[in-house]
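Hi team,

Below is the intake form for Glycosyltransferase from Mariniradius saccharolyticus AK6. Please confirm the fields before the structure is written into the shared record.

FORM ID: S-0412
PROTEIN: Glycosyltransferase
ORGANISM: Mariniradius saccharolyticus AK6
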Amino acid sequence: MRKNSVAIASVLKPVKDPRAYFRFGFSLRETNKYEINIIGFSSKSEPPEGDIHFQTLFSKRRTHPKRLLVSWAFLVKIWKIRPEILIVTTYELLPVSVLAKWILKYKLVYDVQENYILNISQNRTVGGFATWITKEIVGIFESCSRPFVDHFFLAERCYLEELPKFRPATLLENRFFNPVVSIQSYQLSTERPLRFIISGTITEVYGTLTGIQWFKEFKKRRPNSELHVIGHFPKQSFLEKLKEEMPFDGLTLEIASSPIPYERILKAYHQADIVLLPYWQIESIRDKVPSKLYESLALGKICLFSPNPKWDEIVKSFGGGFAVDFRDFSGIPNVVLELDNRSFFTKNPDVSLTWKSQETEFLDIIASFVK
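The structure came back. Fields below:
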């Protein structure tokens, strides 16, 4: 039986990105109806896995001049693949995707993982004149492409309000792709070291430096505590800031300029006791739900997070952690008391934390394009 061709494309996201590969890719493969090509960032050639094939679009640092040529390279790839459905996960590929749609006649889906214009304004990834020009480019790409997009996937509930022109739309949050662990309520042992983890994108507004500074103060109360920082840093200048806080006893640093394989991050989660989410509560972050929050709860790992009513509601429903003001070191004694005395996971994690709770809706949308 002939299988329908689906391509999922990004520039800087790795080909084994949690959303494109573990969520979308695995779900499509399990139906046995689709041939899947995942196009994205990779520093090495990845062999196919059944009906999932990997195509490297970009392999350099994010500011490398070759990035200017990715649209042409992408056009060549989709011309060869000839997908019936193209899912684009970045604004950067929208113009060429619209152009090729006129010829190849595929259905075009824009998977909106970020509110890019708000992020550029808030997240300190670029500065000065570059901020203005980048926002203008994103705005032009998204607004001009919008009439030609057949469907929008929105990765955050807040995008339903922030991006009202992105319609028709389906909310597909970044919930954990695996089943939840079955776990009994427990208390932390005071007899062994506490193992903390900060993972993912290493940036200032994601609170990496804030979390490290907080942990150093926490360690004065619990000297045998350990911190594992694992992830990738988009900006070299921020790495220099981090180096000012290092090294110190109990810190394991596993960072790189390109994304760390997701399987490696999950392994680090399994070895940790407590996940730190010291995100700054700025406009581009506070209304979103970090995928790491879903991951920590689904894996039965205690989550300490910056004060946020939405996150607090989710975490409290399972007894999986509590809010911490990572800038207020005077609150650390109370954190120690809570960790020593509180029972965690008074309710077992359930399917609402997982991609499985959204999978059917995703597959129904895809199937509607090939009838």
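SUMMARY LINE: The mean pLDDT is 93.

Thanks, M.
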